[in-house]
Protein backbone atom coordinates (compact mmCIF):
# COMPACT_ATOMS: atom_id res chain seq x y z
CA UNK A 1 0.00 0.00 0.00
CA UNK A 2 1.48 3.38 -0.98
CA UNK A 3 1.77 6.48 1.22
CA UNK A 4 -1.23 8.18 -0.41
CA UNK A 5 -3.53 5.20 0.34
CA UNK A 6 -2.18 5.14 3.90
CA UNK A 7 -3.05 8.84 4.27
CA UNK A 8 -6.58 8.18 3.00
CA UNK A 9 -6.88 5.24 5.43
CA UNK A 10 -5.70 7.35 8.40
CA UNK A 11 -8.07 10.18 7.51
CA UNK A 12 -11.09 7.86 7.26
CA UNK A 13 -10.14 6.08 10.47
CA UNK A 14 -9.82 9.32 12.44
CA UNK A 15 -12.97 10.95 11.05
CA UNK A 16 -16.01 11.10 13.30
CA UNK A 17 -18.33 10.97 10.29
CA UNK A 18 -18.30 9.50 6.76
CA UNK A 19 -16.35 11.57 4.21
CA UNK A 20 -16.95 12.31 0.53
CA UNK A 21 -14.09 12.12 -1.95
CA UNK A 22 -13.95 15.94 -2.01
CA UNK A 23 -13.63 16.06 1.78
CA UNK A 24 -10.90 13.41 1.65
CA UNK A 25 -9.07 15.47 -0.98
CA UNK A 26 -9.14 18.49 1.39
CA UNK A 27 -7.24 16.42 3.98
CA UNK A 28 -4.83 14.37 1.88
CA UNK A 29 -4.32 16.60 -1.14
CA UNK A 30 -4.31 15.73 -4.81
CA UNK A 31 -4.02 12.11 -5.78
CA UNK A 32 -6.17 9.37 -7.18
CA UNK A 33 -8.67 9.01 -4.32
CA UNK A 34 -10.75 6.44 -6.22
CA UNK A 35 -7.78 4.10 -6.70
CA UNK A 36 -6.79 4.48 -3.04
CA UNK A 37 -10.35 3.72 -1.92
CA UNK A 38 -10.42 0.66 -4.17
CA UNK A 39 -7.14 -0.60 -2.72
CA UNK A 40 -8.38 -0.03 0.82
CA UNK A 41 -11.73 -1.73 0.13
CA UNK A 42 -9.91 -4.77 -1.22
CA UNK A 43 -7.44 -4.74 1.68
CA UNK A 44 -10.21 -4.73 4.31
CA UNK A 45 -12.49 -7.21 2.52
CA UNK A 46 -13.16 -10.21 4.76
CA UNK A 47 -11.64 -8.57 7.85
CA UNK A 48 -13.28 -7.51 11.12
CA UNK A 49 -13.86 -4.03 9.78
CA UNK A 50 -14.59 -3.02 6.23
CA UNK A 51 -14.51 0.16 4.18
CA UNK A 52 -17.93 0.99 2.74
CA UNK A 53 -19.49 3.74 0.66
CA UNK A 54 -22.97 4.98 1.59
CA UNK A 55 -24.56 7.85 -0.30
CA UNK A 56 -21.27 9.02 -1.80
CA UNK A 57 -19.50 9.03 1.58
CA UNK A 58 -16.89 6.56 2.85
CA UNK A 59 -16.38 5.14 6.33
CA UNK A 60 -15.18 2.10 8.24
CA UNK A 61 -17.76 -0.15 9.85
CA UNK A 62 -17.79 -3.45 11.71
CA UNK A 63 -18.20 -6.44 9.41
CA UNK A 64 -21.92 -7.37 9.42
CA UNK A 65 -21.23 -10.95 10.53
CA UNK A 66 -19.44 -9.65 13.66
CA UNK A 67 -21.89 -6.90 14.64
CA UNK A 68 -23.52 -9.18 17.23
CA UNK A 69 -20.33 -9.00 19.31
CA UNK A 70 -20.87 -5.29 19.91
CA UNK A 71 -24.58 -5.34 20.68
CA UNK A 72 -24.02 -5.71 24.43
CA UNK A 73 -22.07 -2.46 24.64
CA UNK A 74 -24.09 -0.50 22.14
CA UNK A 75 -27.05 1.52 23.30
CA UNK A 76 -30.13 0.31 21.47
CA UNK A 77 -32.30 3.16 20.23
CA UNK A 78 -35.95 3.10 21.16
CA UNK A 79 -38.34 1.78 18.58
CA UNK A 80 -40.23 4.24 16.43
CA UNK A 81 -43.99 4.46 16.82
CA UNK A 82 -46.13 3.39 13.88
CA UNK A 83 -46.87 7.07 13.14
CA UNK A 84 -43.14 7.91 13.10
CA UNK A 85 -42.37 4.89 10.90
CA UNK A 86 -45.09 5.85 8.41
CA UNK A 87 -43.95 9.47 8.43
CA UNK A 88 -40.33 8.44 7.82
CA UNK A 89 -41.40 6.21 4.92
CA UNK A 90 -43.44 9.00 3.35
CA UNK A 91 -40.54 11.43 3.62
CA UNK A 92 -38.07 8.89 2.20
CA UNK A 93 -40.22 8.03 -0.81
CA UNK A 94 -41.53 11.56 -1.55
CA UNK A 95 -38.84 13.98 -0.42
CA UNK A 96 -38.91 16.87 -0.29
CA UNK A 97 -42.40 16.78 1.21
CA UNK A 98 -44.41 19.20 3.35
CA UNK A 99 -46.28 18.41 6.56
CA UNK A 100 -49.62 18.85 4.75
CA UNK A 101 -48.56 16.34 2.08
CA UNK A 102 -47.51 13.85 4.77
CA UNK A 103 -50.89 14.25 6.46
CA UNK A 104 -52.74 13.87 3.14
CA UNK A 105 -50.93 10.60 2.40
CA UNK A 106 -51.37 9.21 5.93
CA UNK A 107 -54.96 10.41 6.15
CA UNK A 108 -54.46 11.78 9.68
CA UNK A 109 -52.70 14.71 11.28
CA UNK A 110 -49.24 14.17 12.64
CA UNK A 111 -48.11 15.63 15.90
CA UNK A 112 -45.14 17.96 15.95
CA UNK A 113 -43.46 15.42 18.23
CA UNK A 114 -43.37 12.83 15.44
CA UNK A 115 -41.20 15.01 13.23
CA UNK A 116 -39.11 16.04 16.25
CA UNK A 117 -38.33 12.37 17.03
CA UNK A 118 -37.19 11.80 13.44
CA UNK A 119 -35.06 14.97 13.45
CA UNK A 120 -33.56 14.08 16.85
CA UNK A 121 -32.62 10.67 15.45
CA UNK A 122 -30.81 12.56 12.66
CA UNK A 123 -32.84 10.86 9.90
CA UNK A 124 -34.94 13.85 8.77
CA UNK A 125 -34.00 17.48 8.19
CA UNK A 126 -35.75 20.65 7.04
CA UNK A 127 -35.14 21.00 3.29
CA UNK A 128 -36.23 24.53 2.53
CA UNK A 129 -39.63 25.94 1.72
CA UNK A 130 -41.97 25.27 -1.19
CA UNK A 131 -42.68 28.18 -3.51
CA UNK A 132 -46.42 28.08 -2.84
CA UNK A 133 -48.91 30.08 -0.76
CA UNK A 134 -47.84 29.97 2.87
CA UNK A 135 -44.37 28.73 1.83
CA UNK A 136 -44.64 25.43 3.74
CA UNK A 137 -41.52 23.89 5.25
CA UNK A 138 -40.26 20.82 3.39
CA UNK A 139 -38.66 17.73 4.92
CA UNK A 140 -36.10 15.30 3.49
CA UNK A 141 -33.99 12.41 4.73
CA UNK A 142 -30.36 12.82 5.76
CA UNK A 143 -27.06 11.12 5.13
CA UNK A 144 -27.44 9.53 8.58
CA UNK A 145 -30.70 7.92 7.39
CA UNK A 146 -28.86 6.30 4.47
CA UNK A 147 -26.00 5.17 6.69
CA UNK A 148 -28.25 3.77 9.44
CA UNK A 149 -30.32 1.73 7.01
CA UNK A 150 -27.33 0.66 4.89
CA UNK A 151 -28.51 2.42 1.73
CA UNK A 152 -26.20 3.79 -0.93
CA UNK A 153 -28.91 6.20 -2.08
CA UNK A 154 -32.70 6.59 -1.98
CA UNK A 155 -32.87 4.47 -5.14
CA UNK A 156 -31.96 1.49 -2.92
CA UNK A 157 -35.22 1.78 -0.96
CA UNK A 158 -37.27 -1.41 -1.28
CA UNK A 159 -40.26 -1.49 -3.61
CA UNK A 160 -43.65 -3.10 -2.98
CA UNK A 161 -42.57 -6.45 -4.41
CA UNK A 162 -39.49 -6.50 -2.15
CA UNK A 163 -41.58 -5.80 0.95
CA UNK A 164 -44.20 -8.42 0.03
CA UNK A 165 -41.49 -11.03 -0.57
CA UNK A 166 -40.00 -10.30 2.86
CA UNK A 167 -43.46 -10.59 4.49
CA UNK A 168 -43.24 -7.02 5.75
CA UNK A 169 -46.32 -5.67 4.04
CA UNK A 170 -49.73 -6.62 5.35
CA UNK A 171 -52.89 -5.91 3.31
CA UNK A 172 -53.72 -2.76 5.31
CA UNK A 173 -50.23 -1.35 4.82
CA UNK A 174 -50.16 -2.20 1.12
CA UNK A 175 -52.66 0.52 0.17
CA UNK A 176 -50.76 3.10 2.20
CA UNK A 177 -47.45 2.03 0.68
CA UNK A 178 -48.85 2.28 -2.84
CA UNK A 179 -49.91 5.84 -2.07
CA UNK A 180 -46.29 6.53 -1.06
CA UNK A 181 -45.71 6.26 -4.73
CA UNK A 182 -42.97 4.51 -6.47
CA UNK A 183 -43.88 7.04 -9.13
CA UNK A 184 -41.88 9.61 -7.10
CA UNK A 185 -38.73 7.54 -7.45
CA UNK A 186 -39.55 6.77 -11.09
CA UNK A 187 -39.87 10.47 -11.86
CA UNK A 188 -36.44 11.00 -10.29
CA UNK A 189 -35.04 8.25 -12.51
CA UNK A 190 -36.39 10.09 -15.56
CA UNK A 191 -34.88 13.39 -14.36
CA UNK A 192 -31.51 11.91 -13.34
Automatic annotation (TrEMBL):
Matching entries from InterPro entries are given as:
ScpB_csome_segregation (IPR005234), WH-like_DNA-bd_sf (IPR036388), WH_DNA-bd_sf (IPR036390)
Kindly state which keywords UniProt assigns to this record, in alphabetical order: Cell cycle, Cell division, Chromosome partition, Cytoplasm
Per the UniProt record, one Pfam family is SMC_ScpB
UniProt lists the gene as scpB
NCBIfam families membership: SMC-Scp complex subunit ScpB
Q: What is this protein called?
A: SMC-Scp complex subunit ScpB
Amino acid sequence: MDEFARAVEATLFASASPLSTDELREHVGDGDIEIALGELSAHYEGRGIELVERGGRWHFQTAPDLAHLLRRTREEPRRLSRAATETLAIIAYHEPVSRAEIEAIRGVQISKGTLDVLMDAGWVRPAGRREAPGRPLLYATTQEFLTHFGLGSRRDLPGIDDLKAAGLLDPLDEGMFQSLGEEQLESEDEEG
